[in-house]
Amino acid sequence: MPVEGGTHVRETWDIGQDKQRLFLRRGGMPESTRRAMQATLDRIAALVESST
Predict the structure, then answer these.
(1) Alpha carbon of 46 to those of 13, 14, 22, 25, 42: distances in Å?
(2) What is the pLDDT of residues 4-40, one digit of tens each?
(3) Dihedral through CA 5, CA 7, CA 8, CA 12, nearest 10?
(4) In angstroms, rounded to a whole number, what is the distance separating the alpha carbons of residues 3 and 31?
(5) What torsion, rounded to 10 degrees, do the Cα atoms 51, 38, 20, 29 define?
(6) Is this prediction's pTM over 0.85?
(7) Rounded CA gap, 1 and 10, in Å?
(8) What is the CA radius of gyration of the chain?
(9) Cα separation of 21 and 6, whole Å?
């Protein structure tokens, strides 16, 4: 989505249709996924910012 000064990128994880959603919500999976998503977004930002 365009925002002032660039583009806002959001990554989501929808497990609503996953047959294992109850298992996925337990344990460390949500936090692990959040950290992995943040790392992905940080890498995208670094790539974009280094090319400008």
Answers:
(1) 22, 25, 34, 30, 6
(2) 887 788 878 777 777 777 777 777 777 888 899 899 9
(3) -170
(4) 28
(5) 140
(6) no
(7) 9
(8) 15
(9) 34
